[in-house]
Specification:
It is a single chain. 42% of the residues lie in helices and 9% in strands. The chain has 10 helices and 10 strands. The strands form 3 sheets. A 6-stranded mixed beta sheet has the order 1-5-6-4-2-3, with helices on one face. Strands 7-8 form a two-stranded antiparallel sheet. Strands 9-10 form a two-stranded antiparallel sheet. 52% of the residues are buried. The N terminus is likely disordered.
Amino acid sequence: MTTSGGSQPVFCTIVPPHVLDRLARHADPAVAGPARRTLQRDAFERTRRRLTTVIGAPAVAAPAGAEPGRPHRTISDAGHGTELPGEKVRGEGDEPGQDATVNRAYAGLGATFELLLAAFTRDSIDGAGLPLDATVHYDREYNNAFWDGERMVFGDGDGEIFLDFTIPIDVIGHELTHGVTQHTANLTYFGQPGALNESVSDVFGSLIKQYALGQTAAEADWLIGAGLLAPRVTGVALRSMKAPGTAYDDDVLGKDPQPATMDDYVRTGRDNGGVHINSGIPNHAFHLAAVALGGHSWERAGQVWYDVLTGGELREDASFTEFAALTLKAARARYGDAAELEAVGKAWDQVGVRTA
């Protein structure tokens, strides 16, 4: 069971601070300037999120007349400012406009809602029809996207290292899944539970992309943020679930630091104890289980992970070992001593996480 008795939303960004730290030290002002401003803005938003948590955010409920099992989306435009939410530019059911960023954000929110409902019978991220709100064109050359506990916020990128953050649908799904975690297991955002928090978002972000594209586990690219890196960057995405540590290797951006197994687990005080780094290990375990089972990843492997996230037994400060043990328990409860149980157990064994 969760220990706090209620959700404690955290400020979660798709680009890890260690990446922005490196960019901020670059000699080229076109690279360093946007990274520094992004770090400053992230620090401000993180502080605001903490104050909101202490004071209490206003309750958000589905609007009057909203139909259960249908999304209620609102997209706002910050106009390159930082006041949230910004000006409303598209509501639920409105026709697409001329702004591709607005249209991508609207579609990504819808794809996330659709997967949660179709695959897991979950009505929005809170299970009770929570409206899905997003703000686009946030700040100038802002190199991030984040979930602040209430809404999605997207930067346009600087064009040097990062492009528009609405381009990869899995980035949208990743951030919204932080909302699902907030309303369920509420995993602590530090160390191994923080890495699990990040990994769960990568898992469901990837599932949302696979569902939208109709892909099987074998057909999926298992990349998080494909299409986000600018042409000058030597890399394909922010992270690879299939091969952690290989998403990028660039003179400016550096080398992807994610480990694939516990042999290379990174002990660090940065990045909330390496939440964006060590998430590569449970990411790789999910990929291995999903590929071993074949077919659509959301149907069996995804169902096991969802059962653990929402089942009420996952502690807020769970370790990799505890999470892995719960996936075995969930696989056995849903499928018995069948292929699903074997695939999940072997996956954790391959990444070096003990399940006994």
